[in-house]
């Protein structure tokens, strides 16, 4: 009798060669890059008064630092 293998190979669900595991492993870095890109754009646009008034002043923790006086 042949010994049983220690690792069982099971077929994975996939769509055109893209498995659920590949999607899961690539979403984490993609989410990190998305957050980084969004914060970079907000930092670059923080000098624009409309961005300060409409976006940054309404942020939960940093909003008090970006209050714009209305004339």
Automatic annotation (TrEMBL):
Entry protein name: Uncharacterized protein
Organism of provenance: Spiromyces aspiralis
